[in-house]
Specification:
This is GAF domain-containing protein. Helix content is 37%, strand content 28%. It is of the alpha+beta class. Strands 1, 2, 3, 4, 5, 6, 7 and 8 form an eight-stranded antiparallel beta sheet that branches. A hairpin with a 3-residue loop joins strand 2 and strand 3.
Length: 340
């Protein structure tokens, strides 16, 4: 078995084998397409050029753990668009976490024995090319696989070929991701009776792909307490929790009184053993976001619970700020209505 890794994001160059280069007609097809059409066109062209057994361009989706969602691809002559799988035991995970190109010239099943997909499809060699956005964040992956061994020279030429299109692929993936998130945020309540605080909780859950979200307002009578406005867990609304008063003391949200954000990537249940629910629900990670009024005074907070750490790329961070400000506006609006 030979396992190699090529670091960094290479730049394009001329090839020793010109046959690997797409022809002018292919380049025209690429330039005339965008979004999923561009990604699938690129996959189709590359498969025709390389004659490989597996080719996919995928988006990194972080829900309870890293998952890969194929946006365009082929395997054994079949379209695998929207196919999604756990990246936990795959060479994909190494490429994602290291932001490095992973190349296995032979014996990829031996290198990753827990990857069922490699074994089921009989793949022998593999290339994983991380897709990086302008902020240096890994947002996806380009994957290629063969049922036979590939040579080092061939793999280097393929990597250089992909590098020529890597920035455009990153842009198209980012655009698809932005549209998906904005659609989720723009979606109105599925039920006419659903109030705005449930809507905000739902939007945060959709944005981050997390297990549970709680929306809370600081008590106007006692600064040591907060009131739960909405609480979703999975696909369920914990309606019995809404309206309940909770103390800040002894909870991670207590730290939001002095800072804009509190993040615990792992060990939540161990850090707060007097809250058995954290352990019962397998909540291992926490993200708390402070909500202020126009004067900078804390009036509420958003809490996210998850089994694994919550990863927020630049786009999610910006949209979370929008939702935080929206929540602050709605809390102040409700307070004004209650005073009338």
């Amino acid at each position: 078995m030979e396992l190699g890794s090529v670091g960094g994001q290479p730049t394009g160059s001329q090839f020793a084998q010109p046959s690997l280069m797409p022809v002018n007609g292919d380049l025209e097809r690429l330039s005339a397409s965008s979004g999923r059409e561009f990604l699938q066109t690129f996959v189709d062209i590359l498969q025709d050029v390389l004659q490989n057994d597996f080719m996919a361009i995928s988006e990194l989706r972080v829900v309870e753990r890293e998952r890969i969602q194929v946006k365009a691809g082929w395997m054994d002559g079949e379209n695998i668009e929207n196919f999604e799988y756990d990246a936990c035991f795959t060479p994909c995970l190494d490429a994602i976490r290291s932001a490095q190109i992973i190349i296995t010239h032979k014996g990829v099943q031996d290198a990753y024995p827990d990857d069922d997909l490699l074994r089921h499809k009989g793949l022998e060699s593999f290339i994983g090319y991380p897709v990086v956005n302008v902020h240096g964040e890994v947002i996806g992956l380009i994957q290629l696989g063969w049922k036979h061994q590939i040579e080092e020279e061939e793999s280097q030429q393929i990597v250089e070929l992909i590098a020529d299109f890597a920035r455009r692929i990153a842009t198209e993936l980012e655009n698809l991701r932005t549209v998906r998130i904005l659609k989720a945020l723009a979606r109105g309540p599925s039920e006419p009776s659903k109030d705005v605080f449930r809507l905000v909780a739902e939007q945060v859950q959709l944005l981050l792909g997390v297990r549970s979200v709680m929306i809370a307002e600081c008590s106007q009578d006692d600064a040591d307490y907060f009131k739960i406005l909405s609480y979703c867990e999975g696909n369920d609304w914990l309606t019995d929790m809404e309206g309940q008063l909770m103390t800040y003391e002894g909870r991670p949200c207590h730290n939001l009184k002095s800072q804009p954000e509190e993040r615990i990537d792992s060990g939540l249940a161990e850090a707060y053993p007097h809250h058995p629910r954290y352990r019962e629900a397998n909540f291992n990670a926490y993200l708390g976001i402070r909500v202020n009024d126009t004067e900078g005074e804390m009036i509420g907070h958003i809490v996210v619970f998850n089994h694994e750490g919550v990863i927020t790329h630049t786009l999610e961070t910006e949209l979370l700020s929008v939702l935080r400000d929206r929540l602050g506006f709605e809390i102040m609006r409700q307070r004004t209505l209650e005073q009338e």
